[in-house]
Amino acid sequence: MIKALTFDLDDTLWDNGPVMVRTEQGHYDWLDQQAGHAKRFPPETYLERRLAAADRYPLRRGDFTFLRRTALFEILSEHGLDNAEANRLADEAIDYMLTLRHEVTLFEESLPLLNDLKHHYGLAAITNGNVDIHRILDTPLFDCVINAGEWLAPKPDARTFLAAMARLGTAPSETIHVGDSWTEDALPALRLGMHVAWIDRKKTGPAFSHPRLHTMTHVRELPDVIERITAARA
Ligand SMILES: [Mg+2]
What we know:
This protein is α/β, with parallel strands linked by helices. It has 2 domains: 4-15 and 105-233, Rossmann fold, CATH 3.40.50.1000; 17-101, Four Helix Bundle (Hemerythrin (Met), subunit A) (Up-down Bundle). Helices cover 46% and strands 12% of the residues. A 6-stranded parallel beta sheet has the order 3-2-1-4-5-6, sandwiched between helices. Helix 1 runs antiparallel to helix 4 (83-101) and helix 2 (43-56) crosses helix 3. It binds magnesium ion. Magnesium ion binds next to loops. Residues 8, 10-12, 179-181 line the site of magnesium ion.
């Protein structure tokens, strides 16, 4: 019997591509207006510095806010700002980045779907991203939220899935994970014995079949998947 669902967020409940383009450019442009640094340190350098920071701090490689802040502070310092000023501007740029990051538009089906599911199932959110779902939803819909990157165990680390199920009080065979990434959602959840509703939006994922794997192109197909899983187990 299915008792709970765990959800990935980005590109599962909303289209995250445009959000990240706006976020990436928006906060770096804003910072350039304050510091005039972007000519010397173009966006590509900012990305390189983030990757270098992830190498330098392997345990925090999934904490994207930390990596961004580290890179920004470094760049502003090299640009000649003193520590206090570099810290202040890095903090403000990160605040603005997070504001832009949360300007997401849920798929029109996402909220009604979650609202309906929460009456019947335990619900958890597991994201590797730095989105705070409470800044997006007016009412709490999830019994458990795990920002796995900031918790030092980004997916596909099994601990994030296990922590969610421990909190929900369900076994893997009673839980469906819903997500769009083959390597970070579908595969680790399958290995743990969970059911998987995998969103392969462009149908470009690996051809792989498994009795617990259910492929969809959009989260709106989830009720059908739940019905199929339930019927198969009846
Ligand atoms: Mg995703």
